[in-house]
């Protein structure tokens, strides 16, 4: 799961209020330059730096930018909260003074989680389960690969899980609920306002109920009239618990919505439960840019979205080793071709519906050897089941030998990127390459070597969903082996091969890691050709001399750093996929603009409360 990048800092207190922060600084002695860091309650992913100078408190909000960097209002960007604090410990750069001494958390003061932090995990699971009907390993993989996107989706609806949220009730009903039982000041509830799609706050004060309209600005931010703006309703509520912000009093006790705590309300954007696996497809294949699914209002497509056969599910019920010829409709459309024959588009008819498939058709004039090769490829694929690996649905032995696979209709990654340069962002590529690393980590765990990992063999289901394919050269390693030794060299993709493959014919998951580095290079150069016009032997000399390809123009430094690690000469020193996936994941999470509603992010910096940066006494 994504973790708060400040979690390990000894001067980080989590979700504490401004006055709590000041209390800690007081107890620590109020020396000039003593500071602490806390979670920002207004902007998701942001922090506040609280600093003492001249016996006064200064609070500076730190915003998380769209590109994943952190800055003080008007300050330089930094890649994380730790780096930011380190910078300001050397250079005051606009602060009243440098950060001189961290106000350390005592052992009995744990980092205080925000309300959402503790709910997040459960909500993610519930959401994924309800929305895509995923369970078990498929659910875990979906969550790992899309955590930032999912968090963003859920943060905006988190209030629906809160006990104070009463959904659509009338003003009168709100009053009735508040007046029932004790009537302390600050007892409150949030309800939907009739007809308008906005929210209202109803609160008890002096035994009287007051109603406030919650405003929402153009960028989607919520606030009380003339109050501080927030990305989400639950943040607004948390803030109003600490600061009245124009209300008659702070919010205190929640008027509990009995229903909300007993059974969880259905999450918005969730669609009715589908039957397990897939629904009979409408004959339109999910297009690349427009998913067939009525995706929960204006958001990016997620890998799990699709109304046709869902390639995210484990299709065990449709996987058969033997497919009858009568179950197959073969289209004339060729998806690709090779020495073996060609890959055609088709439809597989099963008891529960029709599935779009890709069919690798062996040329009929092929000799026994090629047939055996394809059988071996099928045998390997049959043993693999992971969302990020193309699944084989079966073999059909008819006029030709045919290998039937799930369809990845957006085609090979290199082609897709070179023809969609303008619409694919770097974040998008990071997400896809992280998925590839997840698929490769799975292969590594199962002790398979791919031996032909390249952008041409990463196929896309849609712009957000990648699958590893082409197991023509793959091998299952024996339980005690960690490499495969090829007796003779064949027609090998040398530019993708690690030195030990070429020199000693030794293939392992570590040599797949080298290929992953080349695949990353291809991806971040939008389908560029590695090593330009160099020939195989030139490349070997180039590598032996210690040279490596340059960082592609659009490629982030941290991704280039991963590539270079993948190109560690000695396989013993090269990272494995477990490590590579970790690096990809942490970068993917760090740049995905966590939990900010669409469109609101850009306005976030502008909306930051400038008063918060001023000293308060
Ligand atoms: P080769 O061993 O000749 O490289 P591949 O398995 O890579 O064979 O398939 C060749 C081409 O066929 C791919 O580049 C791709 O365009 C297409 N293709 C293969 N499998 C699929 C699939 N499951 N879905 C969509 N297209 C596919
Ligand atoms: Mg191929």
What does this structure look like?
30% of the residues lie in helices and 18% in strands. The model is unreliable at 260-297 and 594-617 (pLDDT under 50). The chain is an alpha+beta fold and 617 residues long. It has helices spanning 18-27, 81-90, 115-132, 136-155, 171-179, 233-242, 258-262, 368-382, 413-419, 426-445, 499-504, 509-524, 536-544, 557-566, 577-591, 600-607, and strands at 34-39, 47-53, 56-64, 70-72, 101-102, 188-192, 199-205, 208-216, 222-223, 328-338, 341-350, 353-362, 392-397, 401-406, 411-412, 448-449, 458-462, 465-468, 475-476, 484-485, 506-507. The longest helix is centred in the first third of the chain and has 20 residues, at 136-155. The strands form six sheets. It has a five-stranded mixed β-sheet with strand order 4-3-2-1-5, with helices on one face. A five-stranded antiparallel β-sheet has the order 10-11-12-14-13. The two termini are 39 Å apart. The protein folds into five domains: 18-102, SHC Adaptor Protein (2-Layer Sandwich), CATH 3.30.505; 117-157 and 266-305, no CATH class; 160-242, SH2 domain (SHC Adaptor Protein, 2-Layer Sandwich), CATH 3.30.505.10; 315-406, Phosphorylase Kinase, domain 1, CATH 3.30.200; 411-612, Transferase(Phosphotransferase), domain 1, CATH 1.10.510. Bound molecules: adenosine-5'-diphosphate and magnesium ion.
């Amino acid at each position: 799961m994504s973790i708060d990048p400040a979690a390990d800092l000894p001067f980080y207190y989590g979700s504490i209020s401004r006055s709590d922060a000041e209390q800690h600084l007081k107890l620590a002695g109020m020396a000039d330059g003593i500071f602490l860091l806390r979670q920002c309650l207004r902007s998701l992913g942001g922090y506040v730096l609280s600093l003492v100078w001249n016996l006064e408190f200064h609070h500076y909000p730190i915003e998380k930018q769209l590109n994943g960097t952190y800055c003080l209002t008007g300050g330089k960007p930094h890649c994380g909260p730790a780096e930011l604090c380190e910078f300001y410990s050397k250079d005051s750069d606009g602060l009243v003074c440098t950060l001189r001494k961290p106000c350390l958390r005592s052992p009995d003061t744990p980092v205080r989680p925000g309300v959402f932090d503790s709910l997040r995990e459960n909500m993610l699971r519930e959401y994924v389960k309800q929305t895509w009907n995923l369970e078990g390993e498929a659910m875990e993989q979906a969550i790992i690969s899309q955590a930032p996107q999912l968090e963003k989706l859920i943060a905006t609806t988190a209030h629906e899980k809160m006990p104070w949220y009463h959904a659509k009730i009338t003003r009168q009903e709100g009053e009735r609920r508040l007046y029932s039982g004790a009537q302390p000041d600050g007892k409150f509830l949030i309800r939907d306002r009739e007809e308008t799609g906005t929210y209202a706050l109803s609160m008890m004060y002096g035994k009287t109920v007051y109603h406030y309209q919650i405003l929402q600005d153009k960028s989607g931010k919520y606030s009380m009239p003339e109050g501080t703006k927030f990305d989400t309703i639950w943040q607004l509520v948390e803030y109003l618990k600490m600061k009245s912000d124009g209300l008659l009093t702070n919010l205190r006790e929640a008027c509990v919505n009995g229903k909300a705590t007993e059974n969880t309300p259905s999450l918005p954007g969730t669609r009715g439960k589908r039957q397990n696996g897939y629904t009979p497809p409408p004959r339109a294949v999910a297009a690349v840019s427009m998913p067939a699914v009525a995706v929960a209002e204006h958001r990016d497509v997620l890998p799990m979205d699709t109304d046709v056969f869902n390639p995210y599910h484990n299709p065990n019920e449709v996987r058969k080793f033997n497919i009858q010829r009568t179950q197959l409709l073969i289209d004339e459309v060729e998806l690709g071709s090779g020495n073996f024959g060609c890959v055609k588009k088709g439809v597989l008819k099963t008891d529960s519906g029709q599935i779009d498939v890709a069919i690798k058709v062996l040329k009929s004039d092929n000799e026994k050897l090629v047939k055996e090769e394809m059988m071996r490829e099928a045998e390997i694929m049959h043993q693999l089941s992971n969302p990020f690996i193309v699944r084989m649905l079966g073999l059909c032995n008819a006029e030709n030998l045919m290998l039937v696979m799930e369809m990845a209709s957006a085609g090979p990654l290199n082609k897709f990127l070179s023809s969609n340069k303008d619409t694919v962002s770097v974040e998008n590529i990071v997400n896809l390459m992280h998925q590839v690393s997840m698929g490769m980590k799975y292969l590594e765990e199962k002790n398979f070597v791919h031996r032909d990992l390249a952008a041409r063999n990463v196929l896309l289901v849609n712009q957000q969903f990648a699958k590893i394919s082409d197991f023509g050269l793959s091998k299952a390693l024996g339980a005690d082996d960690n490499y495969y030794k090829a007796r003779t060299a064949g027609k090998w993709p040398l530019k993708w091969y690690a030195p030990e493959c070429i020199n000693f014919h030794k293939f392992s998951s570590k040599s797949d890691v080298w290929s992953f580095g080349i695949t990353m290079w291809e991806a971040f150069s939008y389908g560029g050709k590695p090593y330009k016009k160099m020939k195989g032997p030139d490349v070997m000399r180039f590598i032996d001399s210690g040279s490596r390809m340059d960082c592609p123009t659009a490629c982030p430094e941290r991704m280039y750093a991963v590539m270079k690690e993948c190109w560690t000469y000695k396989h013993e020193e090269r990272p494995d996929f477990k490590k590579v996936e970790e690096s990809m994941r942490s970068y993917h999470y760090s740049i995905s603009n966590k939990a900010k509603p669409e469109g609101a992010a850009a306005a976030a910096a502008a909306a930051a409360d400038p008063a918060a940066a001023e000293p308060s006494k």
